[in-house]
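Researcher: Quick one. two chains, 973 residues in total.
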Amino acid sequence: MTEGGAIGGTTMGTTDGVWVEVRRGVYHDSVTLMRVSRALAERPDVAEAMAAMGTDLNLEMLRRMGFDVPADAGPGDLVVAVRAADGAPAQALDGARRALEELLRRPATAAAPADGEEPARTTAAAARRIGADVALLSIPGPQVFAEAMDALDAGLNVMVFSDNVPVEQEIALKDAAARRGLIVMGPDCGTAVIGGVGLGFANAVRPGPVGVVAASGTGAQQVMCLLDAADVGVSHVLGVGGRDLSLEVSGRSALAALAALDDDPATELIIMVSKPPAPRVAGLIREAARRLDTPVVFALPAPGEDDLTAAVERALATLGRPVPRWPRWPAPQPTVPPGRELRGLFVGGTLRDEADAIVRASLGDGGHTLVDFGDDAYTRGRPHPMIDPTLRLAALAEHAADPACGVLLLDAVLGHGAEPDPAAALAPAIAAARERRGGPDGDLAVVVSLCGTAGDPQDRDRQAAALREAGASVFASNAEAARCAVRLLRGSVEGVPDE
Amino acid sequence: MSEARPRLGGLLTREPRVVAAGVGVLAEALAQQAVPVETVDWRPPPEESLAALNTVLGDPRRAAANERAVGRMLSARPHLVDVRPASEVLGLEPGAFLHAGPPLEWERASGPMRGALMGAMLLEGLAETPEEAERALARGAAVLEPCHHHRTVGPMAGVVSPSMWMLVVEDAEHGGSAYCSLNEGLGKVLRYGAYGPEVLERLRWMGAVLGPLLRDAVRRHGPIDLIGLIAQALQMGDELHNRNRAATSLLVRELGADLVAADAPREQVAEVFRFIAGNDHFFLNAAMAAAKAAADAARGVPGSTLVVAMARNGTDFGIQVSGTGDRWFTGPAQVPDGLYLGSYGPQDANPDIGDSAITETAGMGGFALAAAPAIVRFVGGEVPDALAATRRMYEICLAEHPVLQIPLLSFRGTPAGVDVTRVVRTGVLPVIDTGIAGREPGVGQVGAGLVSPPAEVFADALRALADAVRPEPA
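Model:
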């Protein structure tokens, strides 16, 4: 071996398929040498191999393995000992020798970049990486508790998009959040906006003075879109989850959200959006609202209460801002023969509820059906209809084929998280439905409530134009859309009656 | 709620930074808004542990209990204060032996554990021959107890007999103490189950020369701050379990003058220096005692899910948890994945053995692999694997060590304080550096590598923690 000479001499002996070599003063760390030993021993033509520094221990082991090691090998010397396998060809040891050189020369692998981290496995670990302040959890509801608690422990606020979370877990999470001065938005919270950033389903709105506390996702979206249409922005939208104002949960998150918005200097007025709460909880919330410095406008759409549009108009009045004419994109509608029914197909639960209240107040029950395709019954094992429109499109075609159906009332919800171009599927479906029923001179009217803003990724005005082109009358106000549908059902010939 | 604290952690005062777990489209929507978002590689926890997980995570005591427990562990300041025989310091009587890991009876003891106990019988003069020692042990002539039950830890078999000299470590912060025997070196040594004449001769020398000289030197020197020394060694490439070269050198430097200054014959002093210089693992036992003192400071906090001991007896792997007192949760010890000496192979290996996983328990060893990249090559890995291993441990730990820092990770503290709930949630098991003992008594070390605890010990501990959660008052 010529390499050894440069360092200080090599003694080597090869006899009868055994190679023993001492390389004086050559040091390799023990781990490297263990790897080398193993690699040599794994060669098919090698029976036994060991490469080690010549410590007493190693020398003893080599001798036990039957190698004849020179007596003068010491701890500063590298000792290599290889025994060829029985019947191995004469050049077996040459192969092992070359392999040894290769192994000892083996360059360090290029270091991976220091930031080449594996993805975090827990919310807390991910949070540490970016100094996060909020966690958005959309893992299956039955398993969300651990991640949410982890996030709270890490000092994060939590938005739980998932549904199917047991109510006692919701209460435990919200109590844990309260102890830490944090908030749990949800479970079943679809929408939040924090400092202009939309979490979940949220519209692109301008910054402004109105804070929203919402136990209803699409309710919050309707409110922020109408405010945006009135050139009034929002400070934050804090979702609290559909069950927060129930008797059990009793507004734990709503109270925290109200207090936080009251403290927020950017928020001049708060709109509280919810389905009607349990009466005792409503009292609790109203009492808390009275104690705030910031005025609170309630938007609790229900029969006999202001609808969302009216609540927004009240909020604008409180702020001293003018109420605009809400955006609308009318299309000529046929005269609907008497006795026909209204069919409402919604992706937004609160939009459905609001329309339902308006329809029933005007028309009574009369066979009119309004369905929320975002309801649990339609989302088990499926994405939300704001992401996947399949089921509603199928229902739309079915209703259009039913001569009893006189007016189709639909919603379309835009914003972050929603499908990138709802009109791409909805407009052709509407056009086909109208075509089937005789077009503008036929007997099927179509009205769309379009919840979105000009700044949304889907571009509200482009969506509206496509839907109108397909034959639908389109409204930014869900209440106006519902009222239009009612008038059409009553036989109005006006596509867009004046309010 | 304190008025000084901003509401919602200041959420409404700045652009949010978001962690997203679950549906990809929601994280994408955030990225499209140019918001800093970090996604979680979330995987469902085991179905059978879900109820216990929710109970324990919902325990209102847990957060404060863990903060207190891990806070005590990380604020411990263990000092080496003395070196004394086990008979004095532990009150260990003739015929009584301590061993590594959870409780174990002779019948279930593995080869190296039996070998070490036989050697200890011979050392203490309780038997004349190995065969006699074996017979005596088999008929129950000796009292066997875990080291951990006596504030003690022992590497590999961890056998402590009355005449062995112990490192005495005291925690200057919390006042606890911990003990560990003196390290014998590598190869044929008692802790790997060897009991031949050279093993006993070395142990006798350690009792007659090494122990007394070290005692005199330590007493003359005064308490040695072990965490300070360990922190330096970490920055010199040790992880304090399978690599103790830097720490051993630092200890020799610290004690050198006082070893020389003592009243011992010059050749004895030279022997001591030669012995320590020839044993890169000499400091391991001091690191273990330091880790034991720190971990013990965290014991007994109701509601805490912090692991305070991981230990193996060659048959079982056991853990103890702060919130469940002195109860052991055990499962079968695994065979380490590693490299073997000479012609040894996995068939020669004993299952995992030793109390040395106390180093991992306290945020060293495998958890500090990124500080000692050489060690990861035991399993054929590379430097990035060492970084990845340490980073993975952050996932299951409650804290980062305030003093022990890793240069390669920009001086981030080592992951410290294993949380039972995180281990169960993620399925990420602690990574432990270890030596590999031969399966047969008397063989000694056959290799070194990495090993993990059996997953079920954490699931069992979690169930016990859940059982200990009092139901909420209605």
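Chain B touches chain A through 77 residues (CB under 8 Å).
Researcher: Thanks, that's what I needed.
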